[in-house]
# Entry
Amino acid sequence: MTIPAMFQKRVSEFPHTPCQLHREGPKKQFTPTTYEELYRIVGNLACALERQGVHEGSRIGLISDNRPEWLALDLALLSLGAADVPRGSDTLSGELLYILDFSECPIAILENVKQLNKILPYEPELPYLGKIILIDGPEELPECSWDIINYKDLLKEGADNCPKDYLPNLIAEERGKDLATLIYTSGTTGEPKGVMLTHANFLYLVEHMHTQADISPGDIWLSVLPVWHSFERIVQYIALNGATTIAYSLPIGKVMLMDFQELNPQWMASVPRIWSAMEAGILRNIKAKGKVAWALFRFFFTIAAAHQAMTNRLLGRVADFRRKFTLPLYIIYPPLWLLLYPLRKLGDKLIFQKIREKTGRRFQAGLSGGGALSPELYRFFQTIGIQLLEGYGLTETAPVAAFSSQHHPVMGVVGKTYPQETQIKVVDEESRECAPGEKGLVLIKGPQVMKGYFQKPEYTNAVLNREGWFNSGDLGMKTIHGELKIVGRAKDTIVLLGGENIEPVPMEMRLAESPYIEQAVVVGQDQKYLAALILPDYDNLESYARENNLGYENRIHLCDVHAILELLDGEINRLISEKNGFRPFERIFRFTLLRRPFEVGKELSAKQEIKRHVINEEYKKEIASLFR
# Structure
């Protein structure tokens, strides 16, 4: 089975069901594309792409943000047995150059001429690239040796030359184990790694989704995430498999809420940052109504939160990491639950129902991924009656390995292994499996695990052993019922609330270039922004202080001198900037100064490498203060 074969099956069953909704025309009204219409577009594109030289095994760059054409192009390439190499329109020139060249892409599909301009200066450094397809092609194109084709012309070429049975014959060829995509992991400097995912990797997850959520044909998904990320990509395949509708929106509060009101969607996949922004917007709107409205909300929210906490315990929806004697709770909670029930229903009618209406009248659940959802955020939405289902995984697991069930969500964990045949174990430093409640390294095994990293066997062998166990680099623990809780990362990558992946080592190396910084540790896992622990170079700071007549008692008190703090702030902003190749979200917003150096055997390994999990524990208070 392949992804196009799955799509073709749904076309035969639900030809007239809307598959996509996107804003079009002068009034920007939502316009539907049915499954049958999208199938015809895919066939025309596949035919035209084959005429342009795409064939089985081709790797084709697909550089675009989330839009209807992306899915059509993706399905067309997969139907031909080709693999797309996707990236968003915010990709830096250097990364784009590396990805297209290393993947040996003969064709790059670019969203607009802005993406073309990123690679034009490097034309001689892209020997494999011969053709460019522009989705939004301007009338006047820049001069270059590449053949440049407009998407509309490509579509017309396919429509003029595509035989009626062309796409069915293509799809009939079984290519389930074939490469479907190369998704490159983010890297600030250095070389990104291309994760090789197959049709089978994705379909294994897609075909089991019905066990976790009640998705029905005709349901609407509000689509707001970058589709080149594996999370949104798997969601779109889930939408196709369920014969549901993908409605393209934007992760902008006003736009999203307007689309919620107009479309009444049942589902939305998003990252913690967007849920956090929604919570902030809700609270801001209530406060704006005055003190009485705010007091009423706080009163009923407190009642509802207490009632929900009892409900979770009585229904077994609380994460237990060791066995507890809970019989007294089952005696005490029922009468309290009944006592609070009328007040909760009153609060729901007066307040919470009106809040929920902002997401439409049919919203079932939000899927949260790309970073850990804080217990407080989960509790807020659960209390007001909006269900969030949290998932866990990595690009290397296509991207799900554990998922919360709509039917039995458990607070404080990312759910059980998903699908059920997947295996997850938590092991200690001696590779022994940890008991419930014990922290260890998370290992994953299942059909969703990648084939490996493209043309990088040494990196593949470092994370994927012969038995098929993938080293996630995450630290976790299991409950007594087998649910998984992620507690940190053993590897370096930081994932912000918005799902942005950041490699801290290059940033730390750049910061250490300052004569006033001896060592730096970038932090921000599951936060809105990055911060840093800075170990100053006290010798150079003392020299600076003397030269500028700055008064201080001793070298440690330099950390409290305002001019010194301004100096270090300037150094950080100078070194970590877009000018030096860093993205806007890689900016360090806050920092704190450490008073003593790191020690070998404690914060440092014998090789002088930073032991991040030790630092996170040792400087827990300092780190927490950076995100208040």
